[in-house]
């Protein structure tokens, strides 16, 4: 976190955008590189994605890079992504609470809607992914990473 305070946010964002484009062009499209899944490699990827997310504030794009490097089906990819996000949000929520951050009364209603939107969203995604071949899912994820890279560079 100290590093991110020393470097201007614009440089961090553009650097991350350039890194994403480098990754997509060189690793994904040119080399078609994949890691063989293992617990040790998954642990290293989880640690590095959490570390970089903590320093630079980019958890989603970095987590996507690591998850995309494994030979996961789209169901496994989504489950792993949600599990990681659950633990990240849980630890973040505890830290916010310890630091004294509290929700206002108007935000408590979101806790009532969150489970409903989660179930409806999971059902819709299940219907869509059931019909989507794996290769198209990989292309969709790659396209979203490219759009995120462009957004980071232009911001």
Notable characteristics:
155 residues, mainly alpha, single chain
Sum this structure up briefly.
The protein has 155 residues and is mainly alpha-helical. 81% of the residues lie in helices and 0% in strands. Helix 3 runs antiparallel to helix 4.
Q: Could you walk me through the main structural features you see in this protein, from its secondary elements to its overall organization?
A:
The protein has helices at residues 2-6, 9-31, 39-56, 59-68, 74-98, 108-131, 134-154. The chain is an all-alpha fold. The longest helix has 25 residues, at 74-98. It is globular.
Write the layout of secondary structure elements.
Blueprint lengths: L1 H5 L2 H23 L7 H18 L2 H10 L5 H25 L9 H24 L2 H21 L1
Task: Count every helix, treating DSSP H or I runs of 4 or more residues as helices.
Answer: 7
Largest β-sheet summary: none
What's the end-to-end separation, in Å? 21 Å
Broad shape:
globular
* Beta-strand share of residues: under 5%
N to C succession of SSEs: HHHHHHH
Class derived from helix and strand content: mainly alpha
Average pLDDT confidence is 79
The value of Rg in angstroms is: 17 Å
Which spans of ≥5 residues are poorly predicted at pLDDT below 50? none
Helix content: over 70%
- Annotation, overall tally of beta strands: 0
